[in-house]
Write a structure and sequence with these properties.
single chain, 199 residues, mainly alpha, 7 helices, flat
Length: 199
């Protein structure tokens, strides 16, 4: 009768079949996560991660840089509010330091900055106007509906109707805001991918 192997024995067999990492993989496994941690500290304004980066060995630097770039790029978003705008600025400052001698990356970074500036200048006001217009439109529909039901709602009472909480409003707003953001988000995603994929 054959003995059934335990889960531990099966796991040990699988581990024995795994090849040892090569020196490049070891560097990547050690320093990319450290780079991400350094960038996370930088985003929280904790210490000076660029000092640690500068004092690192030449073989570690590319991997530290990759980890830092991953985190800084992930923090770039459409500036829908002041907090996101501040986070973007911090990310852009960090990436500018990392890309000092890398013209293709600097060019891509300029494009990302341009997209966020365009969104702040045109996209946000467009969103605000669309929100205002949709609110007025739904308020009008509600007033007409209540009037037909004999509620006799006075137009001034519309201010008391909180249409923003209505599912119909929220559904329409998600659709409209998504359409406004889509073109900007598409450009930003493309730039993020190009930055991540640069050597």
């Amino acid at each position: 009768m054959t003995r059934i192997k335990s889960a531990f024995e099966k796991a040990m067999e699988r581990i024995e079949q795994i090849e040892a990492p090569d020196p490049v993989e070891k560097l990547e496994w050690e320093f990319v996560p450290l780079g991400r941690k350094l960038a996370g500290s930088y985003m929280k304004s904790q210490g000076d991660p660029f000092k640690k980066f500068s004092s690192s060995t030449d073989e570690a630097k590319p991997y530290l840089k990759k980890g830092m770039i991953d985190v800084l790029i992930a923090n770039i978003q459409l500036p829908k509010n002041e907090n996101i705008d501040a986070t973007n600025k911090r990310s852009f400052e960090g990436l500018t330091i990392l890309f000092q001698e890398d013209q293709p990356s600097k060019d891509l970074l300029e494009r990302a900055i341009y997209v966020t500036q365009q969104y702040a200048q045109y996209g946000n006001p467009q969103r605000e106007q669309a929100y205002f217009d949709l609110k007025k439109q739904i308020e009008q529909v509600v007033i007409e509906s209540l009037s037909r039901q004999g509620g006799g709602v006075h137009p001034q009472a519309a201010g008391n109707i909180r249409v923003e909480t209505m599912p119909e409003f929220q559904q329409q707003w998600m659709k409209i805001s998504g359409q406004i953001d889509h073109q900007y988000e598409q450009h930003l995603d493309q730039i993020r991918q190009e930055l991540i994929n640069l050597p």
